[in-house]
Each structure stands twice: as structure tokens, then as C-alpha cells.
Amino acid sequence: MAHILIMGAGLGGVVMAYEMKDLLGRDDRLTVVTKDPIYHFVPSNPWVAVKWRTREAVEVDLAPVFERRGIDYKPVPVSKVEPEHNRVELADGSTIAYDFLIIATGPELAFDEIPGLGPDGHTASICHVDHAVEASERFEQFCKNPGPIVTGAVQGASCFGPAYEFTFILDTELRRRKIRDRVPMTFITPEPYVGHLGLDGVGDTKGLLEAEMRQHHIKFMTNTRVAKVEDGKLIAEEIADDGSVKKTAELPFGFSMLIPGFRGIAPLRGIDGLVNPRGFVLIDKHQRNPKYTNVFAVGVCVAIPPTGPTPVPCGVPKTGFMIESMVTATAHNIRQLLDGQAPTHQATWNAVCLADFGDSGVAFVAQPQLPPRNVNWSASGVWVHNAKIAFEKYFMRKMSRGESEPFYEKAMLDILGIGKLKKTSENA
Question: Could you confirm whether 353 is annotated as catalytic?
């Protein structure tokens, strides 16, 4: 009998639990521990922040779903990870031993790295549903006395898509309220160009997103880092290619949302051989940690080097389908290890992304996510907005039913040539 422990119950952790359970034997145990007992669909947070969705509409209570699937569930945060002893300590003082550990915690949001940043400071956030609900209240107050808006991401951020989405969703909502003409908007980003996305662009995301910015009268600043945020004012520095400060700007705002930098969660940071200096988990091509070979990792907590040097640090995003491919590879590799075999499965890290702009959007497919790519495609249109709504409903249904990849989803992706596992000589 083997005991598999999953840390985290966000997108990666929940899908991991469903897929792993499908591959385990009757005598094997699967446990999920998490600080958030309720799953929420993060891609819907921009809609929550303008009250196009309630938080209840994008949440799933995991306890009954896990119980139905025969998955042990402990909604208690992990306080310490001891990979040399194959156990974790929980915040309530209890410990859990494991044979295999799968880390799927997502990131810690590093608001504290910039003075005045974040919900406890002067800017809103859409990184968590709690933040999105608070942002919606701030936005309602802002609309009573409109002024400038500053959105975007700060240095070290790796999740740029939601920053673009929320910017255009705000634009749409302001137009619906007939107050857009009273709201100058500025988008700031550490990216070297609009549409870089931490991926050196996908297809013509540079041209598409720059055109959307100009079409919607949104000014933008690239190669920008935030020095500090004060009440109603942000200090931004444009950085030259040699790293020097080219220009400093004071940007006034009545409402601001900035994506922070990410780092690994506190219980992981500083464990030699498990994580990098930023606290992200080190993995090999099989999603396995090189030092602690019974530890795997999936999702945003994984360490991925940037696509190349940039004047301002830009992380690499871990998109939904990319994370799902990590999950599938991990589940199959652990099954092989349980069967006494060496792991052979590798995730494709393909990316399929729908970025909603309120009444239109941009979609892209990157195979693989990191260049050079076999497929490098992007497009825009109203259809993206409708597709994002349909996907939200479909994915929430899967989560509430305890499913990972129904057969018809796999069949459709196979037809499109979008796989989760690489075809290699190891698993041919």
C-alpha cells in the first residue's frame, strides 16, 4: 500500500487528485491538504472584480466531491515540509507521512516586496477570489468619483494574461456605465514589449495587444518597475537596456490593480535541493525533484527559467493547459514507480489560452509554451469572449463532478493535435 500526499487544492492540486485517484490501486491512499477548503476558478476573478460574477458562482466545495471519490481531505495549511523524513507538519500540530509527495501549492504573492503594493496597501488584486471581491468594492467606490486608473504587473510577475484581461474588462465596464470618458487609463508592465507575456510573444500577440491598447485609448509603459505605491500615486521607473533608470514617472490613480511578483510558499523556501532561491520547486523532465526523488511538483510552484534576459525581471507563466499536462505526466510517472518501473512520461507544456476583454478577446496556442515552438498562433475576436464563458461553465462542471479529462475532451484535443504527453523513445 502506498500513500500519496498532494499539497494544495487549486487547479493543479484538484486535477492532480482526480487523475492520481484514477491510476491508484484499491489499497493505495491519496490525501490532499490545503489552506483553502473551497476551490475557486481563478480565471473568473477579473469578472468577480467588476461584479459580473459572484464568488459563489465560481466556487466548488471540495469536501463532498473528494469524499465521493474516496480521497482523504484535510483543509489545514502545511507549516513545515521535511522531505528527508518523508513527512509534512500541519498548522494544527499534526504530521502526515507519505511515500510520494506532489507539491501543487501555487505561489505566495510577494506584495511586501514593493512598499504600498497590494490589498493591504493602495492597490487591488485579482489573484485570489477574496482579493477580487475586495477589488469590486473598491471599484464601486471609484465609480462614484472617477479618475485615473493604473493597471498591469510589477517586476518579477509571471502572470500577465489576467492583467491584460482586467484592463480591458474595466474599459468595457466603464463604457457601459457611460463614464469611460472621465477615466484616463495607463497599463504598466515589466515586459520588454506589450504582448511579450513572459513567453517572448505568441504569434502576433505584440501587434494584437498594442492595437487593442490604442483602439481603447489605453496608454502603456513597458520595461517598467514600480518603486513604491502611495495613496493615489504610483512611482514607476522605465529601465533602459543597460539596467539604468531611463525615466521616472509619477502616475496618479483613483483605482489601481497590479499583479505582484510570485515566490514559493514559506514552508518550502530554504530547503536545499528542493527549491531555488525564490522558493520554486526544482524538477527534472519527469516533474520529479532531482534530490528528493519521491517528490514531484506541478503548477505555478514549479521553477522555470525565463525565456531570455530582459531589462526588468519577467517570469514565465504557467497556464492552465500547461499545468494539466504536468499533472498527467506526474500521475503516470508515479504509477510507473509504484509498478517498479522507471518514470518515462514528459509533459508537453502546451499552452491554450483564452484572454477575455469584456466584449472581445485574444486567444493563442503555443506548442510548446516555451519557444522555439511547433505551433505559434494567436487571433482575436468576439468569439474569444463567448468561448471563455463556455469554458468556465464546462470546467466548473468537471470540478464539481470530480472529473479530470472526460473521453470526449481528450478526443477533441487529439483531433486538434493538442496533447498532454510528449511522444518520446522512452514511452513509445
Answer: yes
How far does Cα 316 stand from its chain's mean position? 10
- Give the DSSP H/E element, type plus range, for residue 23: helix 11-23
Q: pLDDT band at residue 409, thresholds of 50, 70 and 90?
A: confident
The CA distances from residue 381 to 208, 329, 426, in Å, are 10, 33, 41
pLDDT band at 369 (very low <50, low <70, confident <90, very high): confident
Distance of CA 385 to CAs 119, 376, 391, Å? 28, 21, 10
Total length of the chain: 428
Q: Give the count of beta carbons closer than 10 Å to the beta carbon of residue 290.
A: 11
pLDDT in tens, 326-340: 999 999 999 999 999
Exposure string of 149-180, with b = 16+ CB inside 10 Å and e = fewer, is bbbbbbbbbbbbbbbbbbbbbbbbbbeeeeeb
Q: How far apart are CA 264 and CA 107, in angstroms?
A: 5
Q: Is 159 a catalytic residue?
A: yes
Q: Confirm if 60 and 396 have CB atoms less than 8 A apart.
A: yes
Q: pLDDT above 90 covers what percent of the chain?
A: 90
Peptide bond into 184 cis (omega under 30): no
Q: Are 421 and 332 in contact (CB under 8 A)?
A: yes
> How many helices (H) and strands (E) are present in the chain, helices listed first?
9, 22
Q: Which stretch of DSSP H or E encloses residue 45?
A: helix 45-48
The rounded Cα 132 to chain-centroid distance in angstroms is 15
Q: Is the bond preceding 368 in cis, omega lying within 30 degrees of 0?
A: yes
CB 326 within 8 A of CB 347: yes
| List of residues 6+ apart from 327 with CB closer than 8 A | 12, 15, 16, 19, 298, 404
Q: Which of 127, 301, 314, 353 is catalytic?
A: 353
State pLDDT tens for residues 88-97.
Answer: 999 999 999 9
Pairing of strands 375-380, 262-263: unpaired
Q: Virtual CA dihedral for 87, 89, 90, 95, nearest 10 degrees?
A: 60
Task: Catalytic residue, from 127, 159, 301, 314: name it.
Answer: 159
Instruction: Report the predicted TM-score, pTM, of the whole model to 2 decimal places.
Output: 0.95
**Grid cell for residue 80:** 513545515
